[in-house]
Design goal:
Elements (H helix, E strand, L loop, with lengths): L10 E6 L6 H15 L3 E6 L17 E3 L8 H19 L3 E5 L1 H13 L4 E4 L4 H4 L6 H9 L4 E4 L2 H7 L7 E3 L22 E5 L8 H14 L4 E5 L5 H11 L5 E5 L4 H5 L4 E2 L7
Parallel strand pairs: 1-2, 1-4, 2-3, 4-5, 5-6, 6-7, 8-9, 8-11, 9-10
Helix pairs in contact: 3-5, 7-8
Length: about 280
């Protein structure tokens, strides 16, 4: 048996939609950096339609490959062309394992893995009982495709029970990693009064920011010194801007956008507000 340390090095391929801001993207960055630091070869393949800037600090040795397209062609043609691009990349890179993140990506990751004889680990990042509601048949599709994965990682028991893969003994629960020493977490200095309420997340329906903004508007009438800061970008951005204008609180609410230094921004909050419908 070979004792060469290089024989133990892995070739790992992460699959995701993009590497912009988000919980899944942060976790992928943390894992990719850790694997790369240990000498493993790491590749990230993005299956989203648009190429988005990588926000988090990613190891220079970890390439991010965008395979989507904004061509004005049919969905089937676009996905077929993407399939050919991804298949070609996998044939060239020859990864030992594919790790998928998020349900719609996991479905594709399993298909790519099985078609190319590569083991697949899927990571469920949503609350499926809510997230899959309204997508006719997609929940059943996820359950079916997930059953072909070589292993599954969940964040909660609720997710694990929903997909019911325990009978195959290939599922486990792993909570989000925090790759930060306690000494590196910025210290918050308590102020005499609350001035800033802050939140962080995608500007999407599930984050329920209209509720937060309306609540803040009522609080500001009693505490005029208050400001609201919401970090993130997303599809509801313009709608939230309009709501702020309608309530007449433009000077007190700000949307700075994306940041790769969330700790540095959060220490400026006096209150962290989390208004999500579900996570």
């Amino acid at each position: 048996m070979s004792k060469n340390p290089e024989d133990k090095k892995l070739n790992i391929c992460f699959m995701t939609g993009s590497m912009a801001t988000g919980g899944a993207e942060r976790v992928i960055t943390t894992l990719a950096n850790e694997f790369a630091q240990k000498g493993h070869k790491v590749l990230i393949i993005c299956l989203g339609r648009t190429e988005q800037k990588t926000i988090y600090n990613l190891n220079d040795k970890v390439p991010v490959i965008f395979t989507g397209s904004q061509e004005q062609i049919s969905f089937i043609t676009r996905k077929y062309r993407q399939y050919k691009r991804v298949k070609s990349r996998l044939s060239y890179e020859k990864p030992n394992v594919i790790i998928g993140f998020q349900n719609y990506i996991n479905v594709q990751a399993v298909i790519y893995g099985k078609r190319n004889q590569i083991p697949v680990v899927i990571s469920e990042r949503s609350f499926p009982q809510k997230n899959l509601r309204g997508f006719l048949g997609f929940g059943l599709l996820c359950k079916l495709i997930y059953s072909f994965a070589d292993a599954a990682v969940f964040q909660t028991n609720e997710q694990k029970k929903f997909y019911n893969m325990a009978w195959r003994r290939r599922d486990t629960i792993i909570m989000n990693p925090l790759r930060c020493a306690a000494a590196e977490i910025p210290f918050y200095h308590v102020r005499d009064e609350v001035r800033i309420i802050g939140s962080v997340g995608r500007l999407e329906k599930t984050k329920n920011y209209p509720l937060l903004i309306k609540t803040f508007s009522r609080l500001k009438k009693r505490f005029p010194q208050l400001r609201l800061v919401i970090w993130g970008t997303g599809g509801m951005q313009e709608e939230l801007y309009e709501l702020v204008k309608l309530l007449g609180i433009e000077e007190a609410v700000s949307f700075p956008g994306e940041t790769g230094d969330i700790f540095g921004q959060m220490i400026q909050f006096d209150i962290f507000a989390f208004s999500s419908m579900y996570e």
